[in-house]
Amino acid sequence: MGRIKQEVRLEHLSRFPAEEAQLEPLLNGFEVSWARERKAYNTSLSVYILTPENHLAETFGLNTQIALFIPHYASFQPRLFQAIYQLLNEDPLNGRVDRNTFLLLCGNEADKKIVFDYITEHARNWIPILLTSEDLAEAKRARWGIRHPLASQIFTRDLFNQELPLKTDIDFFGRESLLFDFRDAISKSQNRAIFGLRKTGKTSVLFKAMRSLSEKDQIALYYDCKKPRIRRLTYPDFLSLICNDISEKLGISSQFKNLEPDERIERIAQHIGKKRRVCLIFDEIEYVSFLAKLDPHWHIDFINLWQTLWSLQSEFRNFSFFISGVNPTVVEIDKISGIQNPLFGIVSYQYLTGLNLSELRRMLHILGRRMGLEFTESATLALHRKYGGHPLLTRKACSFIHTAVQIEGTERPVSISSEFISMHEDILDENMEFYFKHVLTELEDFYPDEYEMLKMAVAGQRLDFSEFATDASLRRHLESYGLVSIDPKTNIPTFMIDCLRSYLERETARKEGRQYRIRLTTGDERASWLKARCHQIVKEFRALNVAIEDAMVTSYSRMDTFFIRKILLMSDRAIQSLLSKHSSTFAISRSLRKLIELRRIAENETISFPI
């Protein structure tokens, strides 16, 4: 049983004695540690700090103290919420209590609706626990005290259901090393880029970096390049928009207004000075690049824009640029239509893949506990294996798990095991089909070769995939997404995200009107397929012959038709024996290994005749 500290009785309840009766039902779970009257935005209210007892903290995942607000006015108005927001960010609440979960006493259900409407409209990430007079009276009578009204509100919230980029720290997990690198780059006026599949959290990372900049009084400007109002702009118009935004931040909107955009940005850069930094953030860069599909004027305007910005950075050193997209083609390619790419060599980049196991474990623990879901280690491993740590896919899966627990009426907190996930796997995949497609959309739109390689991988076209994988950039991109791992010896891919592999198998088969996962050739195509494969094998045999002749191995200095047939009929064990004799000769060793690989591929694939 909790208690009210003596200081609270002497300093606060002596002035507001009626509030002691309101606190009494909360003592079956909380200690009242601190209290004061506070005024803000013309609103007066009592502010308490409550310390949850161990059993309550364990049940509801309350890891810190929480605030209780008791308004001194009957009506709930917007200024009340402004006052609460301010007080949560002031001492002693700031840094001591949870800034997102708090208790608020209200008169009736109508007041509850006002609070929820306000939070919805203003996109607050608050998780208020609203208690009416009736709730307090029931808690005082009930055996379980305050736990029932807490459970009815906390456990019904779906904290995993976040589809938009994260704009507050409460929902942000992992990426610490990346953010540290970003902060260091800004201080040195260096450029950074992050690439990866859709919804891996790229925009959330950029927003986090912006919040960090604003705390240091630096200027960060964010441009979502896929927005029509941005991508439709020409180079001069986009540069003018950037000039206007910087000028507004600096408070010099009326200066340099009549100059041409490229001259104006130089004058603004001079005005910024050497100590202050401006970071321009370009999200979804493909839409305003030479890869643009919707607005082809960017095939040229991209060069003009970045020639201007790169020249600006070189001269004044108070600008830095952050770029985000699907893959680094925009910064890797050295020339565009014969003209040097201004971004080539000036941007350091990383791929943003899924959360690692440690980061995922932390997310499931923190958010799950607040919803009454305790994810076991086996469940964590199963989710990581199926969704590869992809933030959106994992969150949506956990959201559906939350819904499944609600439908089944299971009392919370409840343990979620790998068996529970397996039992609901079909309904999970069915509900998440749209999100699987969403993750791969931009890969299909902007990088069709890479998307086609993935289709080959799931359709059993191992040799075709192997041929594409000889292109180092294609291979590197696919592996860097965290989608596949490609064996360096055989070029055979292994999918790292099970759900996307299953989706691609189903979707590719559906589009091509076939019943089976493996892609089969028609009768008319089989002859040409077999001819192409035989040609590939003969090509490798000739390479082997050249390697043997170059090595001047006496026993095999010539490879006539008879000898080719002899090797073709040799068992794998015999070839391995030959391989061991010449293991020191790299060219021969490599060719013999390739021979074994090609023969196995040919033997396996001839049965089903895939393309």
Q: Can you describe this structure?
A:
With 611 residues, the protein is an alpha/beta fold. It has 5 domains: 149 residues, no CATH class; 177 residues, P-loop containing nucleotide triphosphate hydrolases (Rossmann fold, 3-Layer(aba) Sandwich); 81 residues; 65 residues; 86 residues, no CATH class. 53% of the residues lie in helices and 14% in strands. The strands form 5 sheets. Strands 1-2-3-4-5 form a 5-stranded mixed beta sheet. The chain has a 5-stranded parallel beta sheet with strand order 7-8-9-6-12, with helices on both faces. A hairpin with a 2-residue loop joins β10 and β11. α17 packs antiparallel against α19 and α20 runs antiparallel to α21. The C terminus is likely disordered.
Low confidence ranges: 552-565, 605-611
CATH class of the largest domain: Alpha Beta
The best one-word shape is: flat
Number of DSSP helices? 27
Would you identify the CATH H-level superfamily of the largest domain?
P-loop containing nucleotide triphosphate hydrolases
Quick take:
With 611 residues, this protein is α/β, with parallel strands linked by helices.
Helix and strand topology:
Blueprint (H helix, E strand, L loop, with lengths): L5 H8 L5 H5 L6 E11 L2 E10 L1 H7 L4 E7 L6 H11 L8 E9 L3 H14 L4 E5 L1 H9 L5 H8 L21 H12 L4 E4 L6 H14 L3 E6 L3 H4 L3 H16 L10 H12 L5 E6 L14 H19 L2 E7 L3 H4 L2 E2 L2 E2 L7 E4 L5 H14 L2 E3 L1 H11 L3 H18 L5 E3 L1 H6 L1 H22 L1 H11 L3 H7 L3 H9 L3 E3 L6 E3 L2 H14 L11 H29 L9 H9 L2 H10 L4 H23 L3
Parallel strand pairs: 3-4, 4-5, 6-9, 6-12, 7-8, 8-9, 13-14
Antiparallel strand pairs: 1-2, 2-3, 10-11, 15-16
